[in-house]
Design brief:
The chain is of the alpha+beta class. Helices cover about 35% and strands about 35% of the residues. It has one domain. It has a 5-stranded antiparallel β-sheet with strand order 3-2-1-5-4, covered by helices on one side. A hairpin with a 3-residue loop joins strand 4 (about 90-100) and strand 5.
C-alpha cells in the first residue's frame, strides 16, 4: 500500500511539473514588438486606416478606403502589403485578433523581431 501511495505521489509530481513547465513561454523582448492595427469603417465618418506602432510612437499610417464590396480588394492588398513589409524586415507574427460591429472592424496583429 505504501508503494502505491509513493508511486502515485511521484506520478502526480511529475504530471504537475510537466504542466507547469509547458505553461511557460520563452520571454518576449517587449522592445522588439510591433502592433499593426487595421480599422475599417463602413461609413466615411471614421477614417479607415492601418496604424503601425512600436508602443512608443506611431511608425506608419496607411489610409484605407471605406469598407464596401467594391473597395474590399484594394484594402486587402494594402493590408497584406503592410504585413509582408514587416515580415521582410525580420518580424514574425505572434498573434492576431479581430472584433467589431456593423459599423467597423478592428484587427490587431502583433509582430516580434527575433
Amino acid at each position: 500500500m505504501k508503494k502505491l501511495i509513493v508511486a502515485s505521489l511521484i506520478a502526480l509530481t511529475v504530471f504537475v511539473t510537466g504542466v507547469l513547465l509547458m505553461s511557460f513561454k520563452p520571454g518576449v523582448n517587449e522592445e522588439s514588438l510591433v502592433l499593426v492595427r487595421t480599422f475599417e469603417s463602413v461609413n466615411s465618418m471614421y477614417a479607415s486606416k492601418i496604424i503601425i506602432s512600436d508602443g512608443t510612437q506611431i511608425l506608419k499610417q496607411i489610409e484605407l478606403e471605406v469598407m464596401r464590396p467594391k473597395t474590399q480588394e484594394n484594402n486587402v492588398l494594402k493590408i497584406a502589403s503592410a504585413l509582408k513589409e514587416l515580415k521582410n524586415s525580420g518580424y514574425t507574427l505572434i498573434t492576431s485578433s479581430s472584433g467589431g460591429s456593423d459599423a467597423f472592424t478592428i484587427t490587431d496583429y502583433v509582430f516580434e523581431k527575433r
